[in-house]
Amino acid sequence: MNLFFQSFVIASVLAIGSGLARAATVVHEYPLRGTLDDNKGGGQLSSMGGQITALGYVFAANQGLTLKSLALSAGSYSFEFSFRFDHTSGYRKIADFHGRADDSGFYQLNGNLNFYPVVSAATADFSDGIDVHVVLARDGTTNVLTGYVNGQQRISFIDSSPYATITAADNTLTLFADDFSTGQGEASGGTVHYLRFFNGALTANEVSMLFAAGPPTVVPEPSTVVLFALGGIILLATMRASRVLPVSSGFPGKQSAKPIAADRPTSVSETARWFEPAG
């Protein structure tokens, strides 16, 4: 999916269903293709010991990622994950909101989406080594927290405690690493393919559209764009200097262009000579 179409899909997702006034907005977007950089220009994710590769971030148990972002709302947000766990037996923590100081948080439990200590899904979606698309959305006005797997709602409850508000220093969210209160025993290794973070709660329809849209496109570095532009300018200058018509001779019926005089054409008849077959 090219960058323009990807942007169009995301814009459509955020405009449909909620109305523009309430639409969630993308704050951070991490394609995780050889880099921990943010497509939106924010700070990098911090590695806890895993390895970034061309196909995602690969981590062992408790080698997840941390996001420090004052731009992200602590209590009205949506998190989008594409990942797989190596092991799905027992509790395996997905996200921690409180600096890993207590056991509450976002998990999978024996294949089922779970938010401890409140609710566990009735449907099993997780298996060892199988990719899943997961979204957690919290509405800061109603305190309703909703979890989705592969575009389908699995859990929902009123988070009045609140367990799912980010309270860690520097508004830090910890991903794929367990808390210290249980000795970090409820974690799994795995691979995360991409992450998006929104301010505002996505609707069920928006989540379904994101699942269908797939991963974000990597935004090229500005230096790469400049190099491509310079290359095009140099190529154009070379062609103009040689005055060679850029017509391929590799197809039947096509003839090679011939060099013409160094001077620019100054009349209609001279202009026509630019298109004469090579002699």
In terms of topology, how is this protein built?
Blueprint: H1 3-15, E1 25-30, E2 46-47, E3 51-53, E4 56-59, E5 65-68, E6 77-85, E7 91-96, E8 105-109, E9 112-116, E10 119-124, E11 132-138, E12 144-149, E13 152-158, E14 172-175, E15 190-199, H2 204-213, H3 222-242, H4 268-272
Antiparallel strand pairs: 1-15, 2-5, 3-4, 4-15, 5-14, 6-11, 6-15, 7-8, 7-14, 8-9, 9-10, 11-12, 12-13
Helix pairs in contact: 1-2
Number of strands: 15
- What is the CATH topology assignment of the largest domain? Jelly Rolls
pLDDT < 50 runs, ≥5 residues? 3-9, 13-21, 223-230, 243-276
Query: If you compute it from the alpha carbons, what radius of gyration comes out, rounded to the nearest whole angstrom?
Result: 26 Å
Shape: globular
Helix/strand structural class: alpha+beta
CATH architecture of the largest domain: Sandwich
**Biggest sheet overview:** 8 strands, antiparallel
Helical proportion, percent range: 10-25%
Give the distance, in angstroms, between the N- and C-terminal Cα atoms.
46 Å
Q: What is the average per-residue confidence, as pLDDT, rounded to a whole number?
A: 82
Order of H and E elements: HEEEEEEEEEEEEEEEHHH
Class of the largest domain in CATH?
Mainly Beta
How many domains? The number is: 2
Give the percentage of residues in beta strands: 25-35%
Total number of helical segments?
Answer: 4
